[in-house]
Known about the structure:
Elements: H1 5-12, E1 20-23, E2 27-30, H2 37-41, E3 49-51, H3 54-61, E4 65-68, H4 80-89, E5 93-96, H5 99-116, E6 120-121, H6 133-139, E7 145-151, H7 154-164, H8 169-178, H9 187-190, H10 193-206, E8 216-218, H11 226-234, E9 237-247, E10 253-263, H12 267-270, E11 276-282, E12 288-292, H13 297-314
Helix pairs in contact: 4-5, 5-10, 7-8
Amino acid sequence: MQKKQQHLARHYGIEWRLTGVASRRLGWLAVPEGFTPEKVLTGNFTGAQRAGDVRGWLRLGKADALFETTSLNATTGQPAIDHVRAALESGAHAISANKGPVVYAYRELTDSAAAQGRRFLFESAVMDGVPIFSLFREAMPAVEVRGFRGVLNSTTNVILEGMESGTPFDDAVRQAQDLGVAESDPTDDIGGVDAAVKVLALANVLMDADLKLADVQRQGIRGINVAQLRDARASGEAWKLVCSARRGTDGRMVASVQPERLKVSDPLAMVQGTSSVISFETDVVPQLIITEQNPTLETTAYGLLADFLIAVRSS
């Protein structure tokens, strides 16, 4: 927001104030007249008033838009769903980088937003700031997405590459953690849960599916060993954790997350490190491939900013 402040004012006529900050550690802090962003970035919240819950916080901060960036709860989508719901019901736009509300409450929250004349947007929930959801919503209207396959979990990508170079599994996990790619508890990444939730978000939004986590056939990477990875590379192939979903001729959705041995000429095999790739099959474009190279936290932040612009310009 700071980096693009002059651009927002000059090209879009948008000025903004940061009136609320909340986290597990800080609680619900608000300054209706606006925090000084430079002070917030240094952890200085002098003069802030404290609210008791999200709804009181939204009222105290007189919020026009909420940025929801809590950690994913892959089982329930909470508390992010309640945060987004509260924002919409208070008359604020809800912009999220969390997959939980998309997977578990997409239709409810979208309908609530429409009823309030607000927007529920979530571009940063999958592939950081890459415009996947807005691509089909804005740039390719009326296109039918028939299926997709991709490599969407950077943690497993980094671990598999480390193992391919001869690093044992547990050491490769620690290397991914040292890089800041893997969580302190990387179970959901290793087991394919994070990737499965991304499949659900994409399928339910772009393909009008109604899948649950149990509907995604899931296998993680723990069964892959160094010998398999090296054998594949020697044969001109590579192991990747592949996410996919496709609607069959009978209309049934088939979704999966599983390790696959791919030819190195496959676009999914070419992605390295923290990069991601997805290939869409549509009724108009047989193969549409989007690759994201080495995203940063700023990439995710840009996705939130882009959603913010779309929301406030449409209201």
